[in-house]
Amino acid sequence: MSESTIVLKGKVREFTKSYSGNLSFTLEDSSNNLHYCFSTKKGSLASSSDDVIIFGTYTTGNKVRINYIINQTRNTEENLLETSQDWTYYLSLIASIGTTIGFIVAILFSLGLFPVDYGYMGMFGSIFNMIFSIVAIIALLPAMIIFWVLTNSFAKKRKSGAEIEAKISKFKQGITSPITTDTPAKPLEGQIEAEDYGTKPQFCAHCGTKVPIEAKFCPSCGSVQ
To answer: Mean pLDDT, to the nearest integer, of 129-133?
Structure first.
């Protein structure tokens, strides 16, 4: 089941107590809703009343795990996505391959496909080999299953992490990219009034003819304006 992502923008209100020292606080959005946000990493990335933008994922109880945080008050940003699954995946994969090879070898020994010279041990050596192979098979089978299940789980986490990384990159581009528009910019209100006032005609006090405001003489009667 994939976790749903969320983008929150608001103000840090209260830091909650964390026994592990990890970052955790409540965030108040523009609708005055409070969200519990936390990270698996430690650090002081925000203070009370800081304006922040959070890209996170919902977990149990509608808690939001912080994957990326932009502190608009401090003008800082940091990626908090947990990427430690890489080494656990490779370690589990190596263990899975190792136990699988051991399991196959143990089966081949139990079937007698590998010729072995037991020397003076004779039949007792053959029996000992059979018992050892059976014990190895019994021990390696559950270990092999467990390691492959873990490897599959870590692989899914790595895939999920890569998807979140891509969403974070797209999210950052959406915030930082300039807004372009083909609509020409409108003049300020004061500029409109000044231009209208400069082009509006006035009336001559002597003959009542319309006279542009910049004219010094009436074009009709010639009186001074």
So the answer is: 78
- Locus of tokens 């003049």: 187
Is 64 part of any domain? yes
Which residues are CB-neighbours of 60 under 8 A, at least 6 positions away? none
Answer yes or no: is pLDDT of 16 > 60: yes
- Residue pair 137/106 in contact (Cβ under 8 Å)? The answer is yes
Contacts of 16 (CB under 8 A, 6+ apart): 24, 25, 26, 36, 38
SS3 state at 20: coil
Tokens standing for residue 62: 């509608």
What mean pLDDT do residues 198-222 have? 68
**CATH code for the domain in which residue 46 is found:** 2.40.50.1010
Residue 57: domain span: 5-79
What's the pLDDT at 183?
A: 41
Given 152, 173, 194, which residue is the final one in a domain? Answer: 173
Query: Residue 89's pLDDT is what?
Result: 87
Domains of the chain: total: 2
Q: Which stretches does DSSP call E strand in the chain?
A: 5-15, 22-29, 34-42, 51-58, 64-71, 76-79, 201-203, 210-212
Q: Which residues contact 74 (CB under 8 A, 6 or more apart)?
A: 46, 50
- What is the reported pLDDT for 83? 59
Across the range 64-79, mean pLDDT stands at 88
The model's pTM is 0.49
Are 73 and 90 in a shared domain?
no
